[in-house]
């Protein structure tokens, strides 16, 4: 373990260095408070610090306060080394942010016992941090599962709606095409009466109305097909996906988001082979791309 020794007295400093090395630790040495504080600004700060109370630049309690205010979430255990034995001084030292104290000249066994307490606390803090990380990962997985379940339910509902819309749309389309075919037979007869203004109006407007109706039915059919493709269940297995059709599906589903603010142009390569992937995820990516980031599409 990396342990900071902040001690301006050379004899005490050498004794602490030798003791920590004997215990198997890696001591980092500072002779004043500012130098001690600089070690906590590095990539690999010490986990435990032994700070002398009386030091040049910054004393031990001031270093404690700086550490606690600058790095509030770091699991640093701080032991103050002090010749002060008054209760008020000890309380003030602990209030500054120290976790423990050892009076000078220190007893070897007492220092080792308090040092081991610090090591146990650090170990518990590290285990707690690991549990928190594991809990965060578990919560992320749970949110993803919940999202997948919602998407699956939405997909099933969309598939049912698409089926219900598709059947009457087919009837409407067939009837309009029947009217279109019938109109081609009736039109020559009506053209003989073209001198009649009402018939002349019908000859001009009825074909346009039929074409617009067929375009509308085709548009509905495209949306229904897109809903059916988009509602593919978010399963565990990958399937072959036609990327071009997935793009067309995403564009159709997202049309309401972009059609009033942008023009959509596609340039698709018909030679692209099918991709082995998750259809639901491909459609979601396609919709996000079709919508554009903050509608920032042109």
In words, what does this structure look like?
The structure is a single chain. The protein is α/β, with parallel strands linked by helices. Among the domains are: 2-106, Rossmann fold; 236-298, no CATH class. It is built from 9 helices and 7 strands, in the order E-H-E-H-E-H-E-H-E-H-H-E-H-H-E-H. It has helices at 10-22, 33-38, 60-70, 87-95, 108-191, 197-230, 243-253, 255-258, 279-291; strands spanning 2-6, 26-30, 48-52, 77-82, 100-103, 239-241, 275-277. Strands 2-1-3-4-5 form a 5-stranded parallel sheet, sandwiched between helices. A two-stranded antiparallel ribbon has the order 6-7. Helix 5 (108-191) packs antiparallel against helix 6 (197-230), helix 6 (197-230) crosses helix 7 and helix 7 (243-253) crosses helix 9 (279-291). The two termini are 57 Å apart. Residues 293-298 have low confidence and may be disordered.
Main sheet specs:
5 strands, parallel
Extended strand count: 7
Helix content bin: 55-70%
Number of helices: 9
Q: Trace the largest sheet across and list its strands.
A: 2-1-3-4-5
Low-confidence stretches: 293-298
Through-space gap between termini: 57 Å
Chain-wise SSE layout:
Layout: E1 2-6, H1 10-22, E2 26-30, H2 33-38, E3 48-52, H3 60-70, E4 77-82, H4 87-95, E5 100-103, H5 108-191, H6 197-230, E6 239-241, H7 243-253, H8 255-258, E7 275-277, H9 279-291
Helix pairs in contact: 5-6, 6-7, 7-9
């Amino acid at each position: 373990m990396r342990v900071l020794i902040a001690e301006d007295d050379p004899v005490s400093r050498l004794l602490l260095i030798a003791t920590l090395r004997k215990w198997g630790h890696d001591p980092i040495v500072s002779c004043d408070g500012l130098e001690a504080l600089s070690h906590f600004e590095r990539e690999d700060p010490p986990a435990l610090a032994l700070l002398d109370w009386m030091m040049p630049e910054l004393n031990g309690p001031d270093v404690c306060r700086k550490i606690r205010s600058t790095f509030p979430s770091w699991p640093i255990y701080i032991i103050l080394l002090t010749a002060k034995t008054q209760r008020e001084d000890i309380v003030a030292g602990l209030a500054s942010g120290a976790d423990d104290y050892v009076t000078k000249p220190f007893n070897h066994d007492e220092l080792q016992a308090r040092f081991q307490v610090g090591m146990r606390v650090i170990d518990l803090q590290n285990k707690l941090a690991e549990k928190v990380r594991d809990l965060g990962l578990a919560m992320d997985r749970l949110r993803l599962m919940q999202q997948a379940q919602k998407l699956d339910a939405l997909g099933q509902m969309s598939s049912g709606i698409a089926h219900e819309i598709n059947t009457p749309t087919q009837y409407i389309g067939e009837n309009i095409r029947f009217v279109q075919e019938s109109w081609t037979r009736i039109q020559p007869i009506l053209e003989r009466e073209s001198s009649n203004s009402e018939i002349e109006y019908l000859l001009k407007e009825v074909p346009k109305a039929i074409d617009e109706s067929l375009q509308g039915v085709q548009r509905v059919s495209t949306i229904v097909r897109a809903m059916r493709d988009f509602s593919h269940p978010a399963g565990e297995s990958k399937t072959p996906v036609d990327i071009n059709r997935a793009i067309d599906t995403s564009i159709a589903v997202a049309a309401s988001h972009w059609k009033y603010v942008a023009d959509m142009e596609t340039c698709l390569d018909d030679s692209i082979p099918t991709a082995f992937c998750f259809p639901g995820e491909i459609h979601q990516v396609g919709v996000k791309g079709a919508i554009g980031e903050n509608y920032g599409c042109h």
